[in-house]
Design brief:
Helix content is 79%, strand content 0%. α2 packs antiparallel against α3.
C-alpha cells in the first residue's frame, strides 16, 4: 500500500485521503443544503400571499431572480450527490472529490447571492426608505464574502507560503 503523509501528519493512501475528503465534503454539503432548502421553501410561499400582488414590478422581478438563484443553488449543492452516485465504483474517487468540491464552491457562491437577494427583497418590502437598504445588504454580503471565501483563502495562501518557505529552507 502506498503511503502519503504529505507533511500534514496523516499516514493515508491517496484512496484513503479521497474517502476522508469525500466524507468531509458531504458533511459540509449537508449544512449548506439545509439552509438553502429552508430559505427556498419560504421563498416559494411568497408568491401565494395576497401582498405579493402589491409589490412593485421591480420587487416582483427581484423575487423571480431570487427564486431562480435559490433553485440553482439547490441544484448545484445536490449535484455532488448525483455525481458520486453516477461515478461510484469506477475507481475515480479523487476526480469525483475534485469536481464535487468545485460544485460545492459554486453552490456556496449561489447561496450567498440568493441570501443577499432575499435580504434585499425583504428589506425593500419592510421599509419604504430604500436609501439605506442597499448599504445594509452590501455590508451583509461583504461579511458573507469575508467569512466564506476571503478568510479561508488568506489562511490557505499563508499555509502554502509557509510550506513553500519550509521546503526551500
Amino acid at each position: 500500500m502506498q503511503s502519503n503523509t504529505g507533511g500534514d501528519g496523516r499516514d493515508e493512501s491517496p484512496h484513503e485521503r479521497a474517502d476522508r475528503m469525500w466524507g468531509d465534503l458531504l458533511q459540509e454539503i449537508r449544512v449548506a443544503q439545509t439552509g438553502v432548502q429552508i430559505l427556498f421553501g419560504f421563498l416559494l410561499t411568497v408568491v401565494f400571499q395576497p401582498a405579493y400582488r402589491q409589490l412593485s414590478q421591480a420587487d416582483q422581478t427581484l423575487y423571480m431572480v431570487t427564486i431562480v438563484l435559490g433553485a440553482t443553488a439547490i441544484g448545484t449543492l445536490v449535484a455532488p450527490v448525483s455525481f458520486h452516485r453516477i461515478v461510484s465504483g469506477r475507481r475515480i474517487k479523487p476526480q469525483a472529490v475534485l469536481w464535487a468540491s468545485r460544485l460545492t464552491m459554486l453552490g456556496l457562491f449561489l447561496l450567498l447571492v440568493t441570501m443577499t437577494s432575499s435580504l434585499l427583497l425583504v428589506l425593500r418590502t419592510a421599509t419604504r426608505d430604500d436609501g439605506y437598504v442597499p448599504w445594509i445588504v452590501a455590508g451583509v454580503a461583504s461579511l458573507y464574502l469575508l467569512f466564506w471565501f476571503v478568510i479561508p483563502m488568506v489562511i490557505r495562501l499563508r499555509k502554502s507560503a509557509d510550506t513553500d518557505a519550509g521546503a526551500e529552507g
